[in-house]
Amino acid sequence: MTDISTASTAGSGVWRALARGPRRFLLSSWPWRAFGYLLAGGVFGVGWFFLALGLLSAGLLLFPVGVGVLALLCIPVTAVGLATLERTRLRWIDPRAVPLPDEEEPAPPPGGRRGTRWVRRLWRRAKSPGTWLEFGFALLNAVLAAVDLGVVFVAGFAVLSQPLAMVLVLGGEQVMYGSDIVLTRPAQVLPWLLLTPVFAVLGAYLLASVAGARAALTRAVLVRPRREEELDARLVEVTASRARMADAFEGERRRIERDLHDGAQQRLTGLIMTLGLAKLDADPALVSRAQDEARAVLDELRDLVRGIHPSVLTDRGLGAAIESLAERSTVPVDVDVTGLADRRPPEAAEAAAYFAVAEAFTNIAKHSGAGRAGVRACYEPTPSGDHDLLVVEIRDDGRGGADPAGGSGLTGLADRLAAQDGRLRLSSPAGGPTVVRLELPC
Q1: What is the DSSP track for 197-229?
Q2: Largest Cα–Cα distance of the chain, in whole Å?
Q3: In a 10 Å sphere around its CB, with 0-12 CB exposed, 13-18 middle and 19+ buried, how is residue 332 labelled?
Q4: 162 Cβ partners below 8 Å, 6+ apart?
Q5: What percent of the chain shows pLDDT beyond 70?
Q6: Rounded Cα distance, 320 and 318, in Å
Q7: What is the DSSP pairing of strand 333-336 with strand 373-381?
Q8: Phi, psi (rounded to 5 degrees) for 266
Q9: Angle at 125 between CA 119 and CA 126, to 5 degrees
């Protein structure tokens, strides 16, 4: 189930490329980028390992004369450079931003000789917790570098071995695969050569999958977003959400004004004129017509008021209001609101949930092609246990494939809930079923 507020930024580039389908993925640059990412990662990882091994050997040999201490201190510090390189290389396979670490190297205190200041700076850098985290990653990366190179070798061998075998056989050489398979004629190599495109596709998917996993590991360990950037991102989202809500409120105001002007106001004008004629002529037919007009105006005003804030929600609560929505829905709806029997949620959360359910029912009727729907409402405790969540789940058996960016009203639903610190989660695979989950803190 996807959280709509964060779905637009989730996942690295290579994972999204894989999800677009085989044709678009294989014709893109992502297989080559994955190949380069793993090959360079393997070379850098093995290179750092031998560098660290050389510094360790020098440190142990020169430790009695004191110089070895500096060599040993340089080992974790070199991991800082490797971590910086890995953060930079992430853009090859994951185009998302890579913020710099929060921790910055403090400036050395003034005074002292240049060599002494350099040693003190090296010592401060070596004892930093962030340095040791990056050193641990460098050790893990050295082990995984062998995996990277192994995957690159397997993918390259699968693609190149058959054409190379054909060249060798045509040149009069023989090709041996182990001790049991010996190829001496082109006819023996041809079936394997025809399978080269299949091996290339499998190799491309292998490279992309491993590269995506390695990039995810690097981001999880080395990329620590700054709190300021997290707050900035949240502020941008809140600002955009408020702008969309302001536009929605203005549109709703114009709709109410239009409905009153074109509907109830015109009907009331006609009612006044009809009553005036009835007063002059004392015609029972005109009086009956005036009564019909009055009933129509009353029904229209009731519908209008229900769109602003329904009386059933105020008088009887969210459960009864959801049942009323289900009764008016053009798609049959199974309702389970027994979880709301014990208490009522806060007024603002109750109103937000009601209008979100109403919009969800409208989406089902317009876009889903469903034959039946269901709604369930209850309270669920949060993991911390400090408060409850009002949870409403709406599901339908329609065609699925709901997209928040497709103009189906889901973004507006998410904004309405976000105004109450709630969130909207969506699960809508192609072919259905579609499940919309509303969560509001109580």
Answers
A1: HHHHHHHHHHHHHHHHHHHHHHHHHH----HHH
A2: 122
A3: exposed
A4: 189, 192, 193, 195, 196, 199
A5: 70
A6: 6
A7: parallel
A8: -65, -40
A9: 85
Query: What is the pTM assigned to this prediction?
Result: 0.48
For the purposes of burial, counting CB atoms within 10 Å of the CB of 398, is it exposed (0-12), middle (13-18) or buried (19 or more)? buried
What sign has the CA pseudo-torsion 131, 132, 137, 142? positive
Give the CA distances from residue 421 to residues 28, 237, 407, in Å, rounded to whole numbers and listed in that order.
40, 13, 23
Least confident stretch, 104-108, 121-125, 204-208, 248-252: 104-108
User: From CA 403, how far away is CA 7, in angstroms rounded?
Assistant: 11
Task: Detail the DSSP E strand segments found in 67-183.
Answer: 175-177, 181-183
Displacement of CA 441 from its chain's centroid (Å): 22
Q: Are strands 423-427 and 175-177 parallel, antiparallel or unpaired?
A: unpaired
Q: What is the pLDDT averaged over residues 211-226?
A: 79
Lookup: tokens for 387 = 């408060």
**What ranges do the domains of the chain cover?**
4-222, 228-308, 316-441
Residue 84 and residue 102: Cα distance in Å, rounded?
13
Q: What is the pLDDT of residue 86?
A: 86
Rounded to a whole number, what is the distance in angstroms from the first to the last CA of the chain?
Answer: 22
* 3-state DSSP assignment of residue 423: strand
Task: Output the six-digit token pair for 301.
Answer: 């005003």
Residue 10 has pLDDT above 50, yes or no: no
Provide the pLDDT for residue 345.
Answer: 83
Kindly give the interhelix angle for 318-328 and 347-363, rounded to the nearest 10 degrees: 20
Contacts of 412 (CB under 8 A, 6+ apart): 244, 248, 359
Q: Is the pLDDT of residue 111 over 60?
A: no
| Residue 416 confidence (pLDDT) above 60 | yes
- How sure is the predictor about 63, in pLDDT bands with cuts at 50, 70 and 90? confident
What is the distance between the alpha carbons of residues 442 and 246, in angstroms, rounded to a whole number? Answer: 24
Give the whole-angstrom CA distance, residue 359 versus residue 409: 8
Q: Which helix (H) or strand (E) holds 257?
A: helix 227-259
Q: Is the dihedral of CA 62, 65, 70, 76 positive or negative?
A: positive
Q: How far apart are CA 417 and CA 425, in angstroms?
A: 11
CA-CA distance, 301 to 274, in Å (whole number)?
19
Task: Fold for 316-441, please state it.
Answer: Heat Shock Protein 90 (3.30.565)
